[in-house]
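Retro notes (design track)

What went well: tokenization of the new backbones is finally stable.
What didn't: we kept losing track of which sequence belonged to which structure.
Fix going forward: every design gets posted as structure first, then sequence, in one message. First example under the new rule, 648 residues:
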């Protein structure tokens, strides 16, 4: 698209000033911001930025949940040719130091007191940081810090500047060009410091528009924005595509009210990583366990029909009249109410991305009438590389290359991408840029995969993570840890898993139980426990998880390429893996190498044949305090199965 974000916003404001652009839930009531009101707010904040000294090409950090005035601040920065840099609002203060210093940030716009406190704490380490503006003033009235002020004050100063210099804002917007830098997103940093991914207006809007055309999106869509704006997935769906399509973005009141807000909004276009869909399914299964005997019987009978018939109906394939009738009756009794309970009663298109979704989880949603599809992309590709067409959604692929995208495979099996949406560069990191971008415009994704006969892309794992077993009966067998982990995580009782096996004789795993699901399971069996660590080491819980692992092994045995990846031993960790402890990224991706190093004593115990191992681990609590968790962890063996040989 040969335009910029601010120009698109102004186009919407001119063409339909009274249409809703954003909604925000405050104190239980939805407040609407129209396109006309948004244009006025952006103009005032932009002029306020000019008064404060913001220059073209400068970086403006934005930290907080999805909030209309934070979106307006990003648009205001872009109006002046400045570059918004969204950061994860749940990050510890120390995690902000590198991005702020790397981008020489002088200005920050934040949501509330929590984010102000974090920036004030690290301010001595970030010598450039001069001004901080906040949206929510609760708890901040008595703060007296140099350069700290409210967004209201900034907008007020901007209104005065706009009166004195009425041509300023329009001149700044008109000076912006499509190939100017529009935003910078820091990668999650699974290894080392995060990298700043630089995108232009053109790259982001080109991919946003390609997705719009692919799924026939219109201004009538409703979107719920509840994932971190610093994650490019959320940013594309609720910012770039919002401006490309002109639909309504709804901002929940808080993380605690998202499920309620989801039902109230009833989005038509929905996007979430697999863990959100896993969590929703877990909550459904917990509720079903609490239901009466008849309701449980009806649910399981209807779901048997749904699994058999639902995906075919969703894909427009022929189904017998009797099966159609059975599914319709199931829809009246179970599927329709369930979609409504989940907040998906109006969903026309739902996407998942970020990591692979378990095939059973994917099939569950499609079987009950939700058009859940997968897409493939990354921060560096402005998300949209491959999308699944309606009626062609497969559990084991991520779709077909969409308009403008070319894909080829390196000799190593790595996927290379050429697209109009590729990053301009990694900020101040030419060596890293040269590693991923070839001279002729191909991007090294780092993912291993292949195109199937139908032209759909199938991802195996991260190329660097795909390994081989060495020695033993499976010598030379391929090991794809993420594939194994995702199969484990389908089970509602397993929240996270980390598989080891590269250059070893066999595969072993760490497992995190889902505390809510397993806690509910234990209570039904009158099994007492005192917190996560105690519950995780119960013999009954180990048997529950062993059953899940053996089912995964039986499934892997049917896959000729991955039969050697069956898990032979596992343990249940004494604590939940946590981003604050460096074990997960802020997008909840496992930092496998770090975990392997941190828990080396447990890895050695798994492979050393031990039946238990004592461990003590330092942890950070939510209030910032440090402490330690210790336990003697059980280690158990698991049944594995002979590989199933397919007939030639």
């Amino acid at each position: 698209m040969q335009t910029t974000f601010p120009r698109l916003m102004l186009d919407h404001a001119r063409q339909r000033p009274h249409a809703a652009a954003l909604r925000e839930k405050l104190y239980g009531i939805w407040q609407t911001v129209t396109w006309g009101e948004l244009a006025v707010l952006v103009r005032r904040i932009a002029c306020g930025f000019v008064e404060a000294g913001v220059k073209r090409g400068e970086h403006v950090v934005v930290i907080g949940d999805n909030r209309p005035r934070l979106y307006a601040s990003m648009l205001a920065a872009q109006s002046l040719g400045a570059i918004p840099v969204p950061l994860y609002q749940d990050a510890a203060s120390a995690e902000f130091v590198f991005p702020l210093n790397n981008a020489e940030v002088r200005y920050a716009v934040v949501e509330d007191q929590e984010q102000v406190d974090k920036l004030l704490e690290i301010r001595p380490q970030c010598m450039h940081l001069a001004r901080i503006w906040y949206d929510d003033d609760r708890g901040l009235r008595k703060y007296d810090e140099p350069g700290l002020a409210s967004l209201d004050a900034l907008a007020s100063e901007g209104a005065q500047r706009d009166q004195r210099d009425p041509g300023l804002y329009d001149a700044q917007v008109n000076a912006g060009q499509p190939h100017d830098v529009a935003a910078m997103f820091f990668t999650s940093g699974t290894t080392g410091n995060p990298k700043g991914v630089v995108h232009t207006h053109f790259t982001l809007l080109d991919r946003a528009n390609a997705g719009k055309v692919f799924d026939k999106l219109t201004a009538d869509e409703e979107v719920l924005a509840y994932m971190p704006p610093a994650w490019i997935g959320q940013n594309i769906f609720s910012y770039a595509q919002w401006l490309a399509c002109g639909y309504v973005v709804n901002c929940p009141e808080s993380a605690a009210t998202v499920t309620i807000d989801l039902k109230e909004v009833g989005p038509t276009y929905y996007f979430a990583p697999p863990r959100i869909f896993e969590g929703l399914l877990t909550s459904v299964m917990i509720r079903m366990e609490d239901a009466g005997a008849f309701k449980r019987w009806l649910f399981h009978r209807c779901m048997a029909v749904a699994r058999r018939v639902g995906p075919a109906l969703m894909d427009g394939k022929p189904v017998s009249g009797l099966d159609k009738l059975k599914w319709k009756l199931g829809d009246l009794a179970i599927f329709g109410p369930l979609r409504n309970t989940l907040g998906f009663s109006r969903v026309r298109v739902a996407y998942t991305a970020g990591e692979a979704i378990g095939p059973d989880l994917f099939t569950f949603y499609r079987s009950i009438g939700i058009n859940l599809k997968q897409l493939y992309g990354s921060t560096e590709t402005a998300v949209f590389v491959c999308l699944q067409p309606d009626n062609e959604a497969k559990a084991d692929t991520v779709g077909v290359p969409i308009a403008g995208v070319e894909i080829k495979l390196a000799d190593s099996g790595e996927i290379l991408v050429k697209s109009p949406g590729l990053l301009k560069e990694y900020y101040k990191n030419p060596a890293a840029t040269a590693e991923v971008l070839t001279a002729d415009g191909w991007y090294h994704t780092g993912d291993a995969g292949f195109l199937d006969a139908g032209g759909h892309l199938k991802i195996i794992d991260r190329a660097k993570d795909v390994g081989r077993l060495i020695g033993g009966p499976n010598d030379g067998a391929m090991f794809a840890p993420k594939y194994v982990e995702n199969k484990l995580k389908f089970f509602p009782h397993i929240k996270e898993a980390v598989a080891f096996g590269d250059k070893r004789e066999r595969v072993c795993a760490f497992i995190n139980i889902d505390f809510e699901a397993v806690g509910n399971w234990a209570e039904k069996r009158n099994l007492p426990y005192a917190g996560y660590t105690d519950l995780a080491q119960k013999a009954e819980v180990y048997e529950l998880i062993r059953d899940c692992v053996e089912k995964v092994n039986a499934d892997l045995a049917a896959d000729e390429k991955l039969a050697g990846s069956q898990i032979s031993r596992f343990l249940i960790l004494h604590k939940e893996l946590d981003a604050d402890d460096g074990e997960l990224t802020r997008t909840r991706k496992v930092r496998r190498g770090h975990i392997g190093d941190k828990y080396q004593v447990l890895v050695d115990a798994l492979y050393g044949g031990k039946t238990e191992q004592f461990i003590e681990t330092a942890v950070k609590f939510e209030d910032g305090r440090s402490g330690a968790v210790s336990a003697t962890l059980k280690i158990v063996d698991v049944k594995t199965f002979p590989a199933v040989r397919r007939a030639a």
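Added context from the reviewer: The CA atoms of residues 96 and 540 lie 42 Å apart.
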